[in-house]
């Protein structure tokens, strides 16, 4: 059992810190190589949710769970608060695990009650609220960005690409951050900072609890994804730190509850869960203990690992680092889906930059998922 746990933690660490390599991709590769143990996959997926802050904050490279956190995280990084972002992510994720454990009995009662249709209506209301929060005529610009990203998403999903989320989220949220940083002439290296979380402990707990609740809701309703749960959280937070606390809590809680949903109903709400073998509902007690072990293990080495990566990145000139990351993202897009992948990556970049030019929130790009859900 220890070997499986360590294998999962190592795999989640690799996917978590590597730009462009999602845990679902690595898990699918291991599964094709004959490594399909549920314990390995669970430990890998949970570890990834703790560490995916590193490529998203350090390099501006998102995945679907943390896409909305790229901009606020990157802003704090550019202010020299990199280790604070890492610490927010780690402790928000850990609190999500702790809060998920006592919530499991209630969750097992709720999971079988879900009925289709509720999720679509919820997403529609969220989309309306998203556009209406823009001031004045910017509502029209937001609507344009929403529909363009939505059409891009619908086209992408219909083509059956191997990594559609990679092209979409890297294009909409990742590459624009890198390009805008280059255009603004930022040359200074990334600063670590003192790591102190400048958010009151009570508020930190409160926002983490909110993120955990939203992550639970996202795991119950297929149309309401973790990204959209984080989007809802953006309306309830007023600064980068509180929003990031919500984002990272949502990400980890969504994984925990998606696994619980799988045990309770057999529904596969998560890519890595889709690779798991059926298991009994009573197994949840064992996996909750595993979650505690994995969480505490990651807390022991995550910050030193982040410091090491930061030092290595600090030796590379900032512009060269941005250029290298952008190049790697383009190459990965081509390796995943060839020229077609590059076309959709470019489409995402253009829409992401359009949002910046029009002066509307990049969250309007979440139409990439929401429009297809609303239309059905």
From TrEMBL:
<dbReference type="InterPro" id="IPR002823">
    <property type="entry name" value="DUF112_TM"/>
</dbReference>
<feature type="transmembrane region" description="Helical">
    <location>
        <begin position="284"/>
        <end position="310"/>
    </location>
</feature>
<keyword id="KW-1133">Transmembrane helix</keyword>
<feature type="transmembrane region" description="Helical">
    <location>
        <begin position="140"/>
        <end position="159"/>
    </location>
</feature>
<keyword id="KW-0812">Transmembrane</keyword>
<feature type="transmembrane region" description="Helical">
    <location>
        <begin position="243"/>
        <end position="263"/>
    </location>
</feature>
<feature type="transmembrane region" description="Helical">
    <location>
        <begin position="342"/>
        <end position="360"/>
    </location>
</feature>
<feature type="transmembrane region" description="Helical">
    <location>
        <begin position="204"/>
        <end position="223"/>
    </location>
</feature>
<keyword id="KW-0472">Membrane</keyword>
<feature type="transmembrane region" description="Helical">
    <location>
        <begin position="165"/>
        <end position="183"/>
    </location>
</feature>
<feature type="domain" description="DUF112">
    <location>
        <begin position="5"/>
        <end position="366"/>
    </location>
</feature>
<feature type="transmembrane region" description="Helical">
    <location>
        <begin position="114"/>
        <end position="133"/>
    </location>
</feature>
<protein>
    <recommendedName>
        <fullName>DUF112 domain-containing protein</fullName>
    </recommendedName>
</protein>
<dbReference type="Pfam" id="PF01970">
    <property type="entry name" value="TctA"/>
</dbReference>
<feature type="transmembrane region" description="Helical">
    <location>
        <begin position="88"/>
        <end position="108"/>
    </location>
</feature>
